Amino acid sequence: MLRQRILTASALGLPALGLVAWGPNWAVLLLVLLVLGLATWEWAGLAGLEGAAPRGSLVLAVGAPVLALGVAPVAAMHYLILGLALIWWLVVLLILPFYREHEGEAHGRRGALFAVAAIVALVPAGMALVWLHALAPLLVVYLVVLVGLADTGAYFAGKTFGRHALAPHISPGKTREGLFGGLLTVLAFAIVGAGVWGLDPMDALVFLLLSVLIGLVSVVGDLFESILKREAGAKDSGSLLPGHGGILDRFDSMVAAAPVFLAGLLWLALVPMPSVAA
Asked: pTM for this one?
């Protein structure tokens, strides 16, 4: 399983990272739309939308705003959506400890709510990735690698030292020891990143703290998708990626991490804040 995961990640991830690092912004926008479209299709399935028409409608409801925001100059709407995303993930964080699955309860209403949640969660993520790429492509590469390392570090630390469940009602396999191992991995990577970019001590400190925060936020995105899968009675969101499951299974952490990372970089003035178009 691990070998298959590595092969899949290398075959698909490395070319994608190359495009992000050196490709034009319009090409990255198309890549983001492709990934979002596949992830939304799987999300629609977990939400209980059956048939190509309902699923396609949700894909369009996510993709169209991301496309419009991606080609438009940065305006007040971009900042509004970014702010709403921060509120959304804060609310998700606060409700995670109280989640309990209710067996036998009708899923229709929850399915509709999860479909709306797809728009609320996925649109800001797509917008943030395209926006951040326009500002600093290598920071998108950094974010992708950071999120991947957080997951990898948590996997190995949890497998080796895991004793205490992190969220037993949501994802029994995740442990507190795994979370700590993932955050240590993120911290080590952030130290390397700060050195490569030559940040001064104060900027390096806030960059490290932001990176660790993103490691935590990525777990929130992962756990939220686990709720979707638990409500749908599914182990994976799909089967497109051998050894990984579906696209959403690989993109779930990024959904939460991308808008928070961009907001943090802008707020801490680690990247230039674009002027708002009239």
From this structure: 0.93
Q: State the Cα–Cα distance between residues 223 and 249, nearest whole angstrom.
A: 11
3-class SS string, 99-136: CCCCCCCCCHHHHHHHHHHHHHHHHHHHHHHHHHHHHC
What does the pLDDT look like over 188-202, one tens digit per residue? 999 999 999 999 999
Among residues 86, 111, 4, the alpha carbon closest in space to that of 261 is found at: 86
Instruction: Tally the residues of the chain.
Output: 278
Tell me how many degrees the CA angle 230-234-239 measures, rounded to the nearest 5: 140
Angle at 225 between CA 159 and CA 30, to 5 degrees: 110
Distance CA 121, CA 116 (A): 9
Instruction: Report residue 238 as tokens.
Output: 């799909």
pLDDT computed for residue 125 by the predictor: 98
Q: Identify the three-state secondary structure at position 173.
A: strand
Write phi, then psi, for 9 (nearest 5 degrees): -65, -40
Question: What does the pLDDT look like over 58-86, one tens digit per residue?
Answer: 999 999 999 999 999 999 999 999 999 99
Query: In the predicted model, is pLDDT for residue 2 greater than 80?
Result: no
The Cβ-side half-sphere exposure at 72, using a 13 Å CA radius, reads: 16
